[in-house]
Batch of 2 targets.
Target 1
Amino acid sequence: MNGVTETDPQGLSPEDYATLCGFLRERTGLSFTEAKRYFVDRRVAARMQAVGATDLRAYMNLLRFQASGEELQRLVNLMTVNETYFFREKYQFDCLVNSVLDELVRGRPKGSRLRIWSAGCATGEEPYSIAIMLLENWSRVDDYEIELLASDIDSAVLERAREGIYDERALQGLPAHLRAKYFQPLRGGAEDWGPRWRIVEDLRDSVDFSLVNLADPQQVRGFRGIDVIFCRNLLIYFDDLGRRETASMFHDALAPGGFVCLGHSESMSRMSSLFVPRRFPDAILYQKPIDGGAA
Amino acid sequence: MGLVKKKAAPEVSPADAGGARDPLAALEDADAAVRRDAAHGLGHSPPPGAEAALAHRLQAEGDAGVREAILTALARIATPAAAAAIVPFLDREDAALRNAALESLQQMPVEVAAPALLPLLDHADTDLRIFAVQGLGSLVHPDRAEWLARVMEHDCDVNVGLAAVEALAEAGSPEALSSLETLARRFPDDAFVAFAVDAARSSFRGR
């Protein structure tokens, strides 16, 4: 491949950076300027190390020619990691309220409890989105006690999640009437931060945030009888064995018949054989067998 | 009803915490969750004899989650003994267990997985030879193409040879072209061999 030089241990050369960014723009539409240089360098270096690519030429060959496209997807996911916002990949929330919850409560008496866990919730957009979707779009929301759990390994982002303060970008996917209903504009500091909104207290009080390292079984022991786990675009940071262990832990945490919802580029079948893929009109989820998988 | 107001985060009760219980003993506990946690712990901090204990438990284990945890633990321990403990599960009737065992070997470092899989290329059981080819074909090792070439040139079963073709075609190994031709000559009346070899040949040339 022309124009690709050896990787500088301090980062990509200007030519390599341009080549990579051009490739990513062509394939994904993502655009990275020179200002994003450090951000891109770190992530590319991490992926090159993970796949054992000794130089950018080898890594670019993998990105271009890998039949599955898996490595390109991983890199893209890393590049978009900070792009979380309300109602991201909303079709999965649609799946929850249109199909999954009705199936889960079939045969359950009114008043029984449903437990939904947002694992790797970062700054809280996901669990709050789930809460809003439930309140707005699941007609039986008042028939059941719904417990929303949310966890992350990063205490700083959890603190922000509990505060529930968001900027315009985070709210870009939210219809205006929902913004008006569930958010209050924050006054003061607008010159520094731009417009910001705080999620209403009632909703903040409905999500139970906790600091959890998914790789530590002791820390996840309290999560039992979960009906739905959202764990989207998180396991890409784990190695193969870590993913298997986490899938196994989810299996343990779920109630029989419970579901795992992964990111759109992730597949449970590449991690574990403990789950059964279920295709719903809106999305594919992974279900713990009703019998728990006992042989 | 509706959304429940939050309470304290899920707590770990002292009884749940596991404490200082011997993980080898916990591996035989009646509670599947305890066995799963024990396997997880053994994978991260294996005492002497952990491989044998995990393999012994795996023989009898009926819970899919615990079996997965045991195989993952053995893959993480990744000693020759751990690899040797997994190999007997490659010929199980239970396809999920068999596949998980193969996957666990593939997730071990190549210097551990390859010595465990290579002897299987000479096993009398055709299925085991196919699994060995699949396992070896996924490893990143300088001798990988040579192992697969040997299969194509010498294995008496056409399906084992085709498994090698498939493994080669996935990664692209133009240096194996002559072995592909040999396989085609060894099974001249098998239309699928001709098709597979032709497809692999085209694939290599396209790279």
Target 2
Amino acid sequence: MTTEEPRIGVFVCKCGTNIAKVVDVPAVSEYAKDLPNVAYAGWQLFTCSEEGQNIIKDHIKKHKLNRVIVASCSPKLHEPTFRRTVMEAGINPFYFEMANIREQVSWAHMKQKEEYNEATQKAKDLVRAAVFRASQLESIGSTTQEVPPVCMVIGAGIAGITASTLLADEGYEVHLVERSPALGGKAAQLGFVFMTDTCGVCVPPRHGEMARKCLSKRVLRHDPKIHVHTLTEVKQFSGYIGNFQAKLHTQPRGVDIDTCTLCGKCIDVCPVKVPHELDLGLGNRRAIYLPYPQAVPRSPVVDFKHCTRCGKCAEVCPVGAIHLDEAPKDTDITVGTVIVSTGFDVFQPIGLYAYGENPNVILQLALARLLDPLGPTDGQLLRVSDKNPPKHVGMIQCVGSRDPEYYSHCSRICCQVAIKHAVYIKEHWPDTDVTIFYKDIRLQGKQYERYYLKAQQLGVNFHRAEITEVKETTKQGLTLAVEHHNGAKETVDVDLLVLSAAMTPAEGAKELAHTLNMEVDLKGFFREYHLKLAPVDTTTDGIYLAGACSSPRDIAEASFMGAAAASHAAIPMSKGEVKVDLAKSIVDETLCIGCANCYTVCPYSAINMEGGVAKVVEVACKGCGICVVECPAEAIQLRHYRDKQIYSQIEGLLANVGAAKK
Amino acid sequence: MTVRIATMGMAGCSGCHIALLDIGVKLLDILKDVELVYSYPLVDTKNPIPPNIDVALIEGSIRTEHDKEMAEAMRKQAKFVIAFGACSAHGGVNGLANVFGGKQGVEYVYTKTILMAQKLVPSEHVPQILTNDLRLSDVVKVDFVIPGCPPNPDEIASILTALLSGETPTLSSKSICDECPLERLTEAPAKLRRIHEIPEPDKCLLSQGFLCMGPATRAGCNAECPRRGMPCTGCRGPSETVWDQGVAMLDALAAMEEDEISDFKLPRLAGTFARYTYASSKLDNLRKGVQKE
């Protein structure tokens, strides 16, 4: 804080007629002239205009102003504008103060004409409060934080891989962290995907390329800049943009990726058989197994939970790549930015529509496995109970989605998935009936409608209906009580029932959010900074979102969100630094008692405990002030919102209370 | 030159005078240069108060019209007035009666409690009770405050010695935690606990969930209670920077113990967080505001 006498300039704005219609602007400006420390007061038609800003600059020079107040609209709208104006005139931007006489006065009291006087009085009160506060303001500088060109991407599904490859192409180093043994996420389970009928992670040839290629494989083959960490989770996380510290915990794979030749001998000799999680229990695998035939990294993995450590696999391995005594390891990395792309899981509708009781009631994801040529049935559509081809496949939409009892959101992909499967069944087994029971068909996307028409032409039955009850459930089939949209009731027999269950946040997403100190919404999806205008940003600078971790998304959306996140993460990394103003919390270390309350409540991990006192990391601090409120010793103050600044504002606001009554 | 000292008692328990005696042998050094001209534990005292008093130590809060009159009379004769002890400094435990207001409190004591057989509110030959308990500074200008319930004898001695040698005494601007030897844990307590749940020794009581008012309380007592395993009750009032002792502590807990403290109602809230400062607390101002309306 400087010791110079404050010389305040007050500029009252008419905002065309927005303010002037309700508030007597010249009277407010005249009133301001007599307030303490005010060296100049005047009014303009549009203060934010180029001309208005030049007038401010002229008066700063003419009257040697060192504080500027603009009484106009919300600081959200024009505070940055005027801060720049005063900065150009050589005044610290934090010596600027705003009085909101539009949103809080003229717009709030627009309707009643007789309020004219009272509205003007309120505008005067707000200006007076701003003048009192302006005398207490302090000059605040800024600092820069270096951002190294390294990004950590958590989750290697479509979104995560897309972001990783793009960042690597742009020249940044990427740590791709995936907790399962192979890359690809849910897309790797799908066999073929909606609309293009290609493999989920398949990338079409680009300009100058001859053939399609696999997105997962590309990560390993083309990019020495991408460090892939499979079987790995983020165990600890701290820091701020430019300096995030992560401790990665890697489970042992048991097989050395580099020496393994994938001859498959180890898999053949393994005596342990367990259900394969990829096939949702429809098929089996060994305790040493390849996660899926095209898995990347291309090497088997040992399931140490079920492995009996008999050692047969290690005996037959011709290259000695198997190490059953491998231990978990921790890796510490420092990164400049983070992209979270942890994807989704599928709602388990236990107890709904006989799911869990009747083996012929399955999820769409399980049907995808049945239809996958490389799946447990080699691509044959078979009933789960007796391995016979079904005659009538029923599909129920919105199971758990758009249902206040479970998830109120639309899961976005279920209509596409059901139609994709129905078309595939009709094309390969035309005699099999397929009926889709839906609430609404929601297909928005380029060329999605074409696929829908195709399904109709192939004779898929679409019923807008509700399944009120499963009347009978046997190994041969189920009888469904159906209530159509028009009120008609009937019963329908199906012998394979497929449920389009809701998309839910990935298992462990909440724990990860806790580790990263990020916000999740009520259902556990990661929360974006702004739904429309900043969907990949988060409240923590330097952490971005991609894919279905923040809301249900289809593959196309995951793909372009991955690209968007990569582009956002590249901004601070390409500049190499971020500029941070210091209007942040500041600790008086002589008063701090080291209770760590502030450390506990800080939503941005911006406070560290060092040597028994709290230290604010100014780059990470957002200036929210929670620490100020909870500090029992009142040892923390927030610059620009210090107690004395707020009290003087309140004092200014109330200074005229007695006078107004008289 | 001898210094003329007076001591006086208002609504209080005389505990502060006992603390004065607790200075022990050192008191003899102090008394060498002192003439005690007015002191109710020693001699029968009445108005008028003798003139030309250098230092007046006033114990107790202002509870009746008589207290108020005596305080004003003392102020006229004394050059330097010290609010002596928690009641005088911040309103003290007496101030908790403000939760109910003066009249209601008196009625309750004289008609509802078992000991009062006659069930009559006394009205003759007794001074009128004030609506609210007041601290000394609400009535007269106070030059210095010695906080504590009771004040720490060592601190009283050092303050009096400083005054006698013509220096300006000071109080610590820090909080109790600054003097407390217990080990601080850097994690928030999972839930609030009560003292019969026996704290672990040598570890910060607040970190263990025991409501210790130390963080918001002025240092100077050498953290005598917490170092013996008793949570600080906040008798020394708010530390230098703390705006309001009870509110500061409540804020600190509100940030982490939502379920635990949401059940607190005003009387319990006042007795726990503003046990000695309710009369001067912002909580009381809120209540007064409500009453006026």
